[in-house]
Amino acid sequence: MLFGRKNKKPIVIPSKKVAEWKYTTCNYCSTGCSIEIGLNEDKKIVTTRGHAGADVNRGKLCIKGLLEHELFDSPGRGSEPLIRSKHYDPFEKTYWDNALDTTAQKIKAIQKKYGKDSFAIVSTGQLMTEEFYTLGKLTRGCIGTNNYDGNTTLCMASAVSGYKRSFGSDGPPGCYDDFEHTHCFMAFGSNLPEQHPIIYWRLKEALEKRKFPLIVVDPRVTMLAQFADIHLPITPGTDCVLINAMMHVIINENLQDQAYIDAHTQGFDEVRQIVKDYDPKSAQHICGIDEDTIRTVARIYAKAPAAMSIWTMGINQSTHGSDGVVNINNLNLITGNIGKPGGTSLSITGQCNAMGTREWSSCSGLPGYRYLENEADRKEIADYWGIDPEFFPKKRGLAETDIFPAIETGEIKGLWIVATNPMTSMANTARIRKALEKLDFLVVQDVYEDVETNQYSHVYFPASVWAEKEGCHTNTERRVNLIANVLPPYANSKPDLWIFNQLAKRFENGNIIKFPEKAEDVFNEMKFLSKGKERNLDISGMTYQKIIDAKGIQWPYREGDEGPDGKNLKGQARLYTDGKFPTKNGRANLLPVRFYNNNEQPCKEYPFWLNSGRVVEHFHTRTRTGKIGNCNKFSPTAYMEMNPDAAKALGVEHMTYVRLTSRRGDAVVLVQLTHRVPRNMVFVPFHYHDCVNRLTLGLLDPHSRQPAFKQCSVRIELVDQDEAARLNVERRTF
Amino acid sequence: MMNQELTNKDEILSGVQSYDPARDSINVENSTASVSQTNASKINTSKTNASKTNASKTNASKTNTSKTNTSKTKTRSNHWEIRTEEQDYAFLPDQPIKDKNRYGKPIDLIDITDITDNKKPDRSLFINGNPEIGSNPDRNKQHGFFFTADNCIGCHACESACSEKNDNPAHLSFRSVGYVEGGSYPDYKRMNISMACNHCDDPVCLKGCPTRAYTKHAEYGAVLQDPETCFGCGYCTWVCPYNAPQLDPVKGQVSKCNMCVDRLEVGLKPACVSACVGNALDFGVIENTPENREQCKTSIPGFPDPEITQPNIRFQQTKTLPIEMTRTDSMPVKYHKDAKGNYKPIIDQKQGKAKHWNFSKLNSRENPLVLFTLFAQAALGLFFITFLGALFGLESLTSFANSDMFLPFIITSLGMTTFALLMSVTHLGKPMRFYRGFNNLRYSPMAREGFGLALFSAGCGLTALFSMPGNQWLVEFLSSNLALNLVTLTEGLPLAALVTGAGVFTVIGGAGGLFYMNKCYQIKARPFWHHIQTATSFVGNSLALGAFVGGVLVISTLIYSQTSAELITQATLVFTGVFIIGMIIEALGLIKHNNDLNRSENEGGAAHYIQCTTFGKTYLFRNWLLAVNIIFAITLLGLNLAGFNDTSLLFVWLVLALINCFTSAIGRALFYILVIPTTMPGAFFWKNKAFEQHARDIGLADNPATGVAPLAH
Hints:
The complex is a heterodimer of chains A (734) and B (713).
Chain A: E1 20-25, E2 34-39, E3 45-50, H1 63-66, E4 82-83, E5 92-93, H2 96-114, E6 119-123, H3 129-143, E7 148-150, H4 157-167, E8 184-188, H5 192-195, H6 197-209, E9 214-217, H7 223-227, E10 230-232, H8 239-252, H9 258-264, E11 265-266, H10 268-275, H11 280-287, H12 291-303, E12 307-311, H13 313-316, H14 321-334, E13 344-347, H15 354-360, H16 375-385, H17 400-408, E14 414-418, H18 422-425, H19 429-438, E15 441-446, E16 459-462, E17 471-474, E18 479-483, H20 496-504, H21 519-530, H22 544-550, E19 553-554, E20 588-589, E21 608-613, H23 629-632, E22 639-642, H24 644-650, E23 657-661, E24 666-673, E25 681-685, E26 712-718, H25 721-731
Parallel strand pairs in A: 6-7, 6-14, 8-9, 8-12, 9-10, 11-20, 12-13, 14-15, 15-16, 21-25, 22-24
Antiparallel strand pairs in A: 1-2, 2-3, 4-5, 4-16, 17-18, 18-19, 21-26, 22-25, 23-24, 23-26
Helix pairs in contact in A: 3-15, 3-20, 3-21, 4-14, 8-11, 8-12, 8-14, 11-12, 17-19
Chain B: H1 9-14, H2 22-29, H3 31-50, H4 57-73, E1 143-148, H5 157-166, E2 176-184, E3 187-195, H6 204-208, E4 214-216, E5 223-225, H7 235-239, E6 246-248, E7 253-255, H8 261-265, H9 271-275, E8 281-285, E9 313-316, E10 324-327, E11 333-337, E12 343-347, H10 367-391, H11 395-401, H12 406-426, H13 445-467, H14 472-482, H15 486-489, H16 495-521, H17 532-560, H18 565-599, H19 603-612, H20 616-641, H21 648-674, H22 689-698
Parallel strand pairs in B: 1-9
Antiparallel strand pairs in B: 1-8, 2-3, 2-10, 4-5, 6-7, 10-11, 11-12
Helix pairs in contact in B: 3-4, 10-11, 10-12, 10-16, 10-17, 10-21, 12-13, 13-16, 16-17, 17-18, 17-21, 18-19, 18-20, 18-21, 20-21
């Protein structure tokens, strides 16, 4: 000891006294990090840590994962099933049997009176894949409504739609390892450091080993944009123009990979034809990126031995979402950057198991990327489940964003919402509130009983969360990973799988179809349905034990892939490596994309673009992250980023309240002045209740039905600070 | 909790109660962990072969052999369980180590450790009472953080890993990320800064802490703080330029970064570093540049002057930043690039230029300190003037000293000091631990201040005791009521000499107290206080307030006892003269403070900017009041000297003195409210004083997940 000290002070450092570590996968975003949960001798959860041996995160976790164990007993959790006859009555506690009986009766009554499709189901990207598959079985096989969709329509529908249109099937073809091989990295509307910190870290590790150009397209100077070699501050909603202009340059200068185009694609002539109209000289006036920069970027991208694109909500959440994805695929197909190390079109997915719901929930068809429109698929599934194929509809029903308008028009009378919060997450809250109020019957199944949507429910099912259950997630790079059951369900909450199984028993077909109780038995059904040489989504080689041993396996991983010694636990890192696509003739589709401008634009009355997005410490309308103090404290209340020059002109000051108004409604936010945003734009984090979505328009993408959350216009008004503060506190009480 | 100090090794060994043997078994059965160690040591050896050709060769190679031996023959110590398949990034690197840091201090701390009888490298830290010695071969080297400011993405992983490991509630954080930003769209740059404790060479926290809660260990050079010793005065949070010690208003005690010494003991980097996903935060022996990094500098924009404490942190910051970097929090400070390319703090006029009163804001949670300092200073002044005046033979004061009022005067001094000390104790987070305030007389000005005031109080008590037998009223009262004759009881004692001696002792104690009271505020991290104005204000108030109380006591006594008018005039001249001198000293200090801070661009200037805007009218009002008071007082003194000695003038004096009490109170309240420390930049919500205040005002803070603790008082 220094400074003349002789007497030791005791050094006390909190010790978690972990007796056992249990393997799980993170339940927040789609990165798919492996987590170990630490239990003490009393089997109490005391800590979480990243699994150092997992390939995805290599021991790292973001703020949410580091604190994730605190969510199990956070405030607001549902402890008992609740019931009431009108949404304005107080809830009463009830037994599970009563809650389930009532729900089944109501569903049947509504269906009997108004038709099978008058009861709708809106699911999520938060459950286990086994639960998605079971919910799909219950919906498609027992309840029989065709109006069944997930909240993935709000985040990944455009990517799904774009992949299907270009490649014939969903499924991101690349993986994180591509960062190690690429020679040019382009991010469209994706802010990795904030939205996917661990994927960013993988990128950073690759960049520290070997520098390659980083090009970022984003109207906001995000952290990634700031680190970019070239930042393209694009005009909102005009990505297709930029990409068309890039392809114009590439084709004009003959930089395309003609051999690849000839061998593996179709429709090149149409694309060549359309991009003629997108000369950088004229395109620059639409997309806001000068012609020289467009040319530079196009050349870097085309000349790179391997170039890759990633995107997230900046592309997906727009009226050109699906087209944007298709166009990114076009760019990568004409430069030969699909299915090779470092060359890919990689959508960075949102929710932890958005992929699982895309693959297995039957939301957009039938399990395992099967289509309702395909008779053979209908028959195969009906036979496997043991029911009449005629029970299935022959066409996909309404998407989530069309279900709510159908409630407005009275076509849908009853709704079951599973682990999603449309009162906060969907565009134009006022409209959603009105729709929910109109329902004859609403069931809400959620981990939290204070989830805002529960204000309008008649029955509430308290669900278990994360490691209170068991099952799989699929991440952005198609890696199936396991969540082990670590602790019993909270209070009288139940695993979603149990809830689905119990409800199934109350329907006629539910007693014909098998509904296994154990998650792995469900997984085995999925494995069976995934078999097939032509099927990329093949998980038939996996078992829970293999998944744990490998800390996640990428699909396809077929029966026998483990090799003669049984030691190969690696699935296929990339799809379409052979240039064969799951289209009719095996070729990828090059689809011409024409830009039209249907966005609400800033005007005299509403002079600001309203941009929205997530911040790192938020997730899924803050139902979980808002309860964990060490997460929530970094942005505990609603705010917006605003350009200081614009603020000066309006007399708006830093750290004061303003009222934002749009043609739909208003919101009160604190002002954070920063040059991150341009003079004609404000940015509001979108997970606050009664905030940004009171303003948004949410025009739908024609292909994916995903709303354009990020393009509408608002006005800024000064407000009485005390009144605004009071309102702000009231809206942050959960 | 072990809250008493363990005095020797044996006691520590017996205090093993919180050590958990179960941890041993985990490590032993963890076979994969030892596999990864062999991997790590393989890497180590391969690296060592390639390097080591510099001057510190002998030193380094010694370490290496020991390291290789340790990792080959011994498994890692049991202080922390290493994760299965742990990655390289989590392990401390094996690099050649320099002998001295850039300030000339040895990096190997074993030679400068003060435990003379135990300079062996193998001593246990007794973390949680665990007697095992850490297996880290570099454990006696000064370690420090390395921050690549170019890379930080502000993702909060470091902060949450830290809070998770240390079980910190939302309103506390040993590590915080804030940012500075600059440029205009789209040429905009945000630089995030992650900062915890820098385990300084010159730990001002350790030196400042009156309770000796801080220890700088030879092991890793870690500056560790024991919350169970701390009494929550918060003085360490004043002196630390980096806002490292965290005062928890709920628990009423300070805690801080412990460098994760438990992880270091097994060769792992701290939890925050291991969690970093931007590859920004790193850790190692100080002055070592991590692999893949090219700079190793001591400053980045927003970081306080490293000369204050010689912090053990090094930076890389290569990307060009805009000329001006601003803070998003409410601190009126921004950073401007000078000709040499260094960023210096300058005032950011966030509050505009308008002057306000904000009188109600003068009422703050520092009120106890306002009362403490003012009452203590007044008591000191009162005693000094009266006692020293009598000692030096001023007839009016010797006559007072011989009167029966001398005893009440001393008791008044004692009472005022006691009240002052009581106020200072209520300001503590843990008032019942007040007695620990003298534990660090060796270094802490605060301990010495308290000690001086305690001596002053004791001196007052003795003086009062010895002057009792000379107090006629008391002697008569005791003999008639309790049949106790003080005079005969104390016969033979040299009472007059004892009173004088005790009084001199009191003066010396009090002077020391006042001296260190000033020293307490001469804090480099608080330039608003680090100025002669603090001293002039303390001395000035001491004289002016002391003269007021003394004048009232002495002159009224003289008048009451019908002393000659001559002596009353003399007393009046003495007290009013000292009163005026006190005010003039304070005024001169204020003028210099204003002049200096108007030219200052640092946090002192920023505090003065707030003084001139948010409190602009109050500040001017106080200054004018003081100036007018001085003019009136001098005029009045002139009248007195000219022979106008009407007793009614005494009432005018009284009014002036009362006005001075008022101005002193305003001045002292401003002194505490305005100070702006050289803290690290905050974020928009987290570590933003304005948001914290707002959240408390409107009730957001009632939700603990907001991360703002409602104030305890």
